[in-house]
Amino acid sequence: MHEVADLDSLAGESVVVIGGGFGGLSTACYLADAGADVTLLEKNEQLGGRASRLERDGFRFDMGPSWYLMPDVFEHFFGYFGKSPDDYYELERLDPHYRIFFKDGDRVDMVPDLETNKQVFESYEPGAADALDRYLEKSKENYEIGMEHFVYEDRNSVGDFLDPSLAKYAWGLSLLGSMQDHVEKYFDHPKLQQIMQYTLVFLGGAPTNTPALYNLMSHVDFNMGVYYPEGGLGAVVDAIVELGDELGVDYHTGAPATAIKGRRGGFKVETDDADYLADLVVSDADYAHTEQELLPEQKRQYDEDYWNSRTYAPSAFLLYLGVEGDVDPLAHHSLVLPTDWDEHFEQIFDDPQWPDDPAYYLCVPSQTDDSVAPEGHSNLFALVPIAAGLEDTPELREEYRNLVLDDIADNTGVDIRDRIVLEETFCVNDFASRYNSREGTALGLAHTLRQTALFRPPHHSETVDGLYFTGSFTTPGIGVPMCLISGMVTAEEMADRERTAKTTRRA
């Protein structure tokens, strides 16, 4: 596992971190542990960024991330500080990991036992069990090589990828081609292809635009397992905040940054109520917002045309529902998939519009955790990926809400339309206003081939000395584990650059 580089050169530095998402919280912990004086400013009333919580009338919803994947990343993060996840929260492995309702009436569970899953695959296509073994072997290889040499190690230049010492690792990776091309080499049945590709939604991509390298997500899914932290993903936010508090991080909520002025050794971060002085600044706010709204034009690395030309991960239409009674047979995680989901992806990336026949995700944490809903009730949220930047009006939400509830009833057999006691929606405009999210994306920059690794924006500003970035727009990318790692990568780059700057000053 990756050894974190020496961060001692950050000791004594004052740092303002803008944004309390997982990237900002992670960075703050590494900096504070290194001896920096860290102040974290969060725009909203609670920490966690997109991992906010909605609590009302005895219901508690994770508003954003709800899957706990890649437990090794959380162990690595807490382990660096001499801690363990179980010092803060308990994990339960879900069984099933998730349930899939296909819209032709078919239903399938993916479970912790791989042999059972192989039998399911074989039932759809002769030879698919052996194909799954081969696929997962490649996925595991990609995961182990990719994580050690290309995720924890920040390869941010062409020269890094041309390094001869990396050739022996890169040779075996599935670097070229799309996920669709890769999966088709192993499975013919469209339903099996969908099972191997549903995780692309977590990366903000589609089978045709996501590099084959991300087959590593199947190792995460099938081999490493799907877990639930007691209390939900919000409990993980609480854990990292508590760790940061132990390390000396000073948190300020309800403190949106309005401007970044100055440079290394003389920064001023302005908010509506106070100015914060610092030697260095790290932004976990969305990269585009930081550059376009917090910096003067002459200090921006990228212009408006650059941000307009990016491929953004989907936004989402979200329904948070408190439901009277149970919602069986929905599992903790359920996916509802059309037998052909190409049209839905086309309506996200190619011809943006509200999907006619959506693929969507249902989360029922009350199937696992009694504390998230009052007795006799269920906690359910529905998430439909939609194109970033779509028109979002109350009328459109109401129309789509009815479509989704009808679709749930038709394709899972669960009719909740007359049992809803609490209801909230969240959509494109909310992502934009609550999280300063470009085009209302729910995730950030999609992981297309042209927006992966060195093709993502850098962790340091090339125009403002001493300004750094962390979070999902940077490497390694989208998702809670990746944002945790981005905090480490940012801290390492800061330490390296500050060490160089101090050496230059002494010379």
Automatic annotation (TrEMBL):
Pfam families associated with the record: Amino_oxidase
Oxidoreductase keyword on record: yes
Sequence ranges assigned to domain Amine oxidase in this UniProt record: 23-494
InterPro entries for the chain: Amino_oxidase, Carotenoid/retinoid_OxRdtase, FAD/NAD-bd_sf
Pathway: Carotenoid biosynthesis
Keyword Manganese: no
GO molecular function (one): oxidoreductase activity
Gene Ontology biological process: carotenoid biosynthetic process
Keywords in alphabetical order: Carotenoid biosynthesis, Oxidoreductase
Protein name: Phytoene desaturase family protein
Species this protein is from: Salinirubrum litoreum
